[in-house]
Amino acid sequence: MQSDKQLTGKNKQKFSGLFWAAVGFTGIFSVWAVLSPNTLTTTLWDWVYKYHANFSWFTVLMPLIILSLCLYLAFSKFGKIKLGGKDEKPEFSTFSWMAVLFTAGIGVGLVNFGVAEPLSHYLNSPLGLAGGHDEVTAAKNALSMTLFIWGLPAWSIYTISGLVIGYFAYHKKAKFLPGTPIEQGFKHKKWGRPVGQLTNVVAAGAASLTMAASIGLGVFQVKNGVQAVTGMSFPGVTSSVVILLIMFAVYTSAAVFPVQKGMKILGDINVYVAVALLLFVFVVGNTNFFMSTIMSTFKSTFFDIIPLSFESYTFFDKGWFFDWPNTTFIWWVSWTPFLGIFIARVSKGRTIRQIVLASILVPTLFLIMWFSVFGGFGIHEAIIGNGEIVNYIINNPDDVYLSFIMVLQSLPWFPIMGTLFIILIIVFLATSATSAVISLGILTSDGVENAPPYRIFIWSVITTMVAFANVVTGTLNGVRAVAVIIGIPYMFFLFLAIAGMFRQMRKDYREGSV
């Protein structure tokens, strides 16, 4: 681990400048969100929709472009390149590595939207009931659209962000910074360095604000779960603050431990609990229906991605298209600053081919099963059941998160499964938060491989304070708007970084250095 004493005075200056720039960038939007949440939310979402109105065609196509680049890297001559050199050994077992990759990237959204998103597409998308389709076709299309948003496209965005940072960090001995591929790949250009530095500042702001919004959503989910399991009501903000402090203790403890310990433990727990819940609903629910749904969704996930990537619903109302595929894809991009650093950090000793296949295919296959079971349960209940869950979503379009708990409540052993649900939310959120604050520590420590624990702790406190302010004031929609608006320019930085990596890879391959 590189300590402060090992950092030169010049590097300390760089750290100090980047740290304060990142804190200032984060603070401006956070204070705005607390003091004038309505103004912030209205202004930023207005900007987002103006972007959508002009460039939604690019946003929906962008993940397919990145997926194609990932597949090219995996199966080309570059696929055999190992991060860290030919003799480098992985720090994690294959299971723990994949668990960490998956749980850091998916976060609490897996539970927040596991039931709600397929039902929302079933009701409101041009491919659903709102588009004039019958119930069966709308159900199939809803799951296909859900996996289009959460499956291969999302994980290709995360993967490429890790590869561009990892390649320069391990093969060029460069810094673990999102701007490094731009600085190094375009170092002969005058704009390379300033654009790279700007990328780092925006990355830190995106990471902290995006994570703060996710933490806030997680607090409400845990509170919903506790209320459902205990049958007790917890009005006011005191209970939310207590939950937030518990989560802070969990992810801060994991973050200050060596990454091989803290993240490994959280990742393994996440997988075990998530699989336990999934298997329970699969076995106790309509197993035959779930199997049929899994097979159908598997097919559509891999065969519908190209037509869906070229569909911008020109002759339909664009409200759903802007709110779901477009906004969600940009949200994924806003996660890449810290996920890119984190994926690079935990993938040392793995080849590019292994990273691409593991970090794209494995999560996607799990998500096919997850959404087919939980989302399929909600759709099945809407078509031939009493419609309680779908009616809840119709009547509460801005608070759909209780739908997941409603699935568990309709099955036996809810006190046990509900408790597992609460554990899953806390650990899922802790895994994502841990990866975020570790990455922020690395980013503002001049890109060292292992940031000093106190810097990680500082970012854990800052992120939690932003989440605290927004939980208390109820301004999470404003923070989400900030994360999305930051993701729009960050798409440009990401493509510049990808271009920088390809330039460097070709040069290194010609010179025989890889």
Automatic annotation (TrEMBL):
Major place of residence: membrane
Entry keyword annotation includes Transmembrane: yes
Family the entry assigns: Belongs to the BCCT transporter (TC 2.A.15) family.
Protein name as catalogued: Choline-glycine betaine transporter
InterPro entries: BCCT_transptr
Keyword Magnesium: no
Highest taxon in the source lineage: Bacteria
Keywords: Cell membrane, Membrane, Transmembrane, Transmembrane helix, Transport
Taxonomy of the source species: Bacteria, Bacillati, Bacillota, Bacilli, Bacillales
Cell compartment(s), UniProt: Cell membrane
Membrane topology reported for the UniProt record: Multi-pass membrane protein
Pfam (any one): BCCT
Transmembrane regions listed in the UniProt entry: 15-35, 55-75, 95-116, 147-170, 198-220, 240-259, 271-291, 329-346, 355-379, 413-444, 456-476, 482-502
